[in-house]
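pinned: reference chain
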Amino acid sequence: MPLAQAESIPIRRVLFACSLNALRSPMAEGLLRHLAGSRLEVASAGVRAGELDRCGEVVMNELGIDISRHKPRQIADLDDEETFDLIVSLSPEAHHQALELTRTMPARVEYWPTMDACAIPEDADDDQVLHTYRAIRDHLFRRIKQRFEVTGSPSV
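pinned: its structure tokens
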């Protein structure tokens, strides 16, 4: 499908993609789902399926968003019937795979470079770790509100 046609498709289904589907993409999924309610279908996946990051759960709970039931999954495991209008990649590795998906899916792809929590020094204390996780969460929150023009709480 030509790019002009893909850009004219209204956004109803969004996929957030990152390296492990353990922190950044589940956070983004939870944030957009919270803000958009039933207006959008939102999912996330990773290049690899990691384990949900517990510190991510903590900082999302601070906003009243529960991501504890999230089950990490891989981009490669997406059902062939599962399509998205927009894929937001949060890591370079995920961006490459997102672009590959557009060979069979008429989706737009946007790259939002987002810090990887693995960059936190191993000797960081709990306060430093939570500060970094909050920075990642807040970065995603700002980008989501700007991109999707959503405010306040979800509407049904």
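why pinned: The CA atoms of residues 19 and 131 lie 21 Å apart. The first strand starts at residue 13 and ends at 18.
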